[in-house]
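We append the chain.
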Amino acid sequence: MIIEPVTADPARPVGKPLLSQYWRDVLFLHWPVSPGAVTPLMPPGVVPDVWNATSWVGLVAFSMEGLGPGSCAGIPYLGSFPEVNVRLYSVDGQGRRGVVFRSLDCPRLAAVLTARAVFALPYRWSETRLTAGQGSYCLATRARRPGPADATCVLTAHTGPPLERPGPLAHFLTARWGLHTRIRGHTVFLPAYHPRWPLHEAQVTDLSQNLTAAAGVDIEGPPVSVLYSPGVPVRFGAWAPATGPRPRPPGLPSMDACAPNKT
């Protein structure tokens, strides 16, 4: 099996989009983790993706805008909300790199119920607020249900200038061209398509969170990688089985802290 290369640009077309959306003001926080520690958290047929023999867990916050079916305009109100998710990095039996979500927090109950029912994604109804602008970033989230009621995250960050040449690790952590999930007893891959991330420098100035622990992932210390992006339009295509032999883990690869969200 050949594992697809890490690419800053889309790895494949998605054809007729299943979902369209815009991810705005995206903040990526990452910690290294042992591949063995996250292997049990992968769906069948998927293993942890690694960079220099290390896997990673991401805490990613952003404002979802214009979420809607196909290429239609977004659903008013219900299609725009702040979100924060915990994700792992995966590769399937066809060599496709993706992400596995361990939790996704958002304040729109209808979106939570739909994503759980249709895509079997672990969305959680939460009180979530996000503000960003003029170099500052502020997020506060507190879980409601389902899941642990004490799952919270409060962070502030400073966002800086664009990165002229993001390194290969930055692409590995951000340029993920699909997701793996388990639908009706089958592990599937949903392809994603969006322009190359415009990545910026960023620095966390305050962070208090237990979302990663609530997602079953132990981390140590502050995030090793912090990146910001103004955002990109995103399309997801129809899912396909994550078939093929079980892959071997790859080696070296080529809420009061913030004002209410206005969307």
